[in-house]
Specification:
Blueprint: H1 2-11, H2 20-43, H3 52-58, H4 60-66, H5 74-91, E1 97-98, H6 120-139, H7 159-174, H8 177-181, H9 190-218, H10 224-227, H11 233-246, H12 248-251, H13 256-272, H14 276-282, H15 288-291, H16 293-297, H17 299-316, H18 323-328, H19 343-366, H20 380-404, E2 434-435, H21 443-450, H22 452-469, H23 477-497
Antiparallel strand pairs: 1-2
Length: 506
C-alpha cells in the first residue's frame, strides 16, 4: 500500500498543466449541452419537462466525457452535440405557449416588490461549475483523466486549477444577494454581521477539520504542496466570507471590481517584492504556519477572486446591471428589484468586463508578471484568469437564455373589460399572447444548485470510498468510465431525489 500511495502521489506531482485554449474547449461542452437541452425543450413537443435519465445523458454525461475519453478531442464532442442542436433549431419553429393575462395570474406567483427573482443563467452556471468539480475530484484518480488537466505543481493552467478558483468566484457571485436586498447591509455594524457569518461558517470549518483527521487517520494519498500539511479547501471557503464582511466599509465607496483588482495587486506585490513567493517555495515546514504555508499564503489571492465574483454578482443578479451602483448612491428604491430584467444591458456589461479581464490577463503574460498563472499562490494572473473565464461563461449562459427564451414585450396587453378574471374561455374574449416559455434552468441543474454543498460533501465521501476500495491508478478505460458513470449517476440521483428539499441551510 505504501508503494501504491507513493505512486499515486507522484502521479499528481510536478505537473505543469495545459493551455487556456484547451481548458476553454473542454468547458465549452457545457454550453453546447445546454443549447441542445434548450432546443429540445423549446422545439420538440412533449419535451417541456425532460425526465431525469434524459437530463443525465444530455447534461452531466457530456461533461464527464469531455474531461476523460474526449479530453484531447473536446471540439469533436462539442460538434457531435452541436449538429443535432443546429438541425432541430433550424428545422422546427419554437413551440408556442399560452401566457395567462395579467388578471388571470394568481397573486402568489408575482414576485414581491422588494424581492429578487432567480436568474436561470446563474443557476445553470453554478450547477455546471459544481458538476465539473464533483467529476474532477474522482476522475483525476484514474489514468483516463489526462495529467495535463490535474492541478499544477506551481505554475500553469489546468481544468482542476480552474475548478478551485471557479468555486470561490461562484460563491462570490451569490454573496452579493444580501447586499442587493438590503441597502443598509453594507453600513450595518460589523460585529453582528461577523457573528452571523461565523455561525454559518462554523460547520464548514468543522468539515475541514474532520477531513484532516480522516485523511491523516486513513493514510489517504495527499499532495502536501497543494494547500499544506493540515490546510484544505474547506478552510479557505470558510474564511473568505469573514474577510468580505471586514471589507464592507470599503465596498460602500469603492467598486467591488476595483477592490478585487487592488487585493489581487497587493497579493502579487507580496509574492514578487516582499518575499512571499520565496517563502512558499523554499521555507521548511517547522511549525504550524510554515506547515500550511500554501493555504495561508493563497488566502488573499482567493479573496481577490471572491471580490471579483461579488462584482459580477452585483451586475447579473438584480434586474438592472446599474441597480447596485444606484443603491450605493442612494438612488435605488426597494421596488426596483421587482422590475423587468434588462438582460440585454446585463449582457453588454458582462461582455465589457470579460474583455477587460482577458486583456489584463494577456498583458500580465506579455509583461511577465510573476512566472505565469499560479493556483498554488493564487497570484494576480490566476485571479484574472478565473475572472475572465467565469465572466465569459456567465455571459454565455445568459446569451443562451436570451436566444431560446426571449422575454415578452415590456408593454403588457390590456385585458378586455368583458373578459372574466379566471381566464379567456368566454366567447368573444381576446386570447392571451403566445410565445416562448419563460427561461428556467434545467430541473436537474436546479436540483444540484439547491443542495450544492451537501452534494459536494457526498462527492468527497464517494471519492474516498472508491479510492479505498480499489486501486484507481491501475484501472483500464472501460473500468474507469464505468465507475465514474455510476458515481455521477448516484450524485445526480441524490440531487434529483431531494430536488424539492433544501437539505442544509447555512
Amino acid at each position: 500500500m505504501d508503494d501504491y500511495k507513493a505512486f499515486k502521489e507522484a502521479s499528481v506531482s510536478g505537473l505543469t498543466g495545459s493551455t487556456v485554449t484547451h481548458v476553454n474547449l473542454i468547458s465549452s461542452v457545457a454550453l453546447v449541452s445546454i443549447a441542445l437541452y434548450s432546443t429540445l425543450q423549446t422545439r420538440v413537443y412533449g419535451a417541456r419537462t425532460i425526465p431525469f435519465l434524459v437530463s443525465f445523458i444530455l447534461l452531466p454525461l457530456p461533461l464527464l466525457l469531455s474531461m476523460t475519453i474526449f479530453a484531447n478531442t473536446a471540439a469533436i464532442l462539442a460538434l457531435l452535440l452541436l449538429v443535432p442542436t443546429a438541425y432541430l433549431y433550424a428545422r422546427y419553429p419554437p413551440l408556442d405557449v399560452v401566457i395567462p393575462l395579467p388578471s388571470a395570474r394568481p397573486s402568489s406567483t408575482q414576485p414581491p416588490s422588494s424581492g429578487m427573482a432567480l436568474v436561470p443563467a446563474i443557476t445553470t452556471y453554478r450547477s455546471h461549475m459544481m458538476l465539473m468539480t464533483v467529476l474532477g475530484i474522482l476522475a483525476v484518480d484514474f489514468p483516463v483523466f489526462p495529467r495535463a488537466l490535474a492541478k499544477c505543481e506551481s505554475y500553469g493552467v489546468s481544468l482542476m486549477d480552474l475548478g478551485v478558483g471557479s468555486f470561490v468566484f461562484s460563491n462570490g457571485v451569490v454573496s452579493a444577494i444580501p447586499l442587493l436586498k438590503d441597502s443598509r447591509h453594507l453600513s450595518a455594524p460589523i460585529l453582528p454581521k461577523l457573528g452571523d457569518v461565523l455561525r454559518r461558517t462554523i460547520p464548514i470549518i468543522a468539515l475541514g477539520l474532520i477531513r484532516v483527521l480522516l485523511v491523516k487517520g486513513t493514510e489517504y494519498p495527499e499532495h502536501e504542496t497543494e494547500y499544506g500539511t493540515h490546510w484544505n479547501f474547506f478552510l479557505t471557503l470558510a474564511l473568505l466570507p469573514i474577510f468580505q464582511v471586514l471589507l464592507h466599509p470599503l465596498i460602500r465607496t469603492v467598486p467591488a471590481s476595483m477592490l478585487g483588482l487592488g487585493v489581487g495587486a497587493f497579493q502579487q506585490i507580496a509574492l514578487s517584492l516582499l518575499g512571499l513567493k520565496r517563502y512558499v517555495q523554499t521555507a521548511p515546514r517547522v511549525d504550524l504556519i510554515s506547515a500550511n504555508k500554501e493555504g495561508i499564503a493563497s488566502l488573499i489571492g482567493y479573496l481577490s477572486i471572491h471580490l471579483l465574483g461579488l462584482a459580477m454578482g452585483t451586475l447579473v443578479l438584480p434586474p438592472s446591471p446599474s441597480f447596485f451602483r444606484r443603491l450605493r448612491s442612494g438612488r435605488a428604491v426597494p421596488g426596483d428589484l421587482g422590475m423587468p430584467r434588462q438582460n440585454d444591458k446585463t449582457a453588454i456589461e458582462l461582455a465589457s468586463y470579460a474583455i477587460v479581464w482577458w486583456v489584463l490577463l494577456g498583458l500580465s503574460s506579455v509583461l511577465g508578471v510573476d512566472e505565469g498563472v499560479s493556483r498554488q499562490t493564487a497570484n494576480l494572473p490566476y485571479a484574472l484568469w478565473i475572472a475572465a473565464f467565469n465572466t465569459s461563461f456567465i455571459l454565455g449562459y445568459l446569451t443562451l437564455d436570451m436566444v431560446f427564451f426571449p422575454g415578452l414585450p415590456h408593454k403588457k396587453p390590456k385585458p378586455s373589460s368583458t373578459a372574466p378574471a379566471s381566464g379567456y374561455s368566454t366567447p368573444g374574449a381576446a386570447p392571451p399572447p403566445a410565445g416562448p416559455p419563460p427561461a428556467r434552468a434545467p430541473l436537474l441543474l436546479e436540483a444540484i444548485n439547491k443542495n450544492a454543498l451537501p452534494l459536494f460533501l457526498l462527492a468527497n465521501l464517494g471519492t474516498g470510498l472508491v479510492n479505498l476500495s480499489m486501486r484507481t491508478m491501475y484501472a483500464g478505460t472501460v473500468m474507469a468510465m464505468g465507475v465514474l458513470s455510476l458515481y455521477t449517476l448516484v450524485i445526480c440521483g441524490v440531487a434529483w431525489g431531494f430536488r424539492r428539499t433544501r437539505v442544509w441551510r447555512l
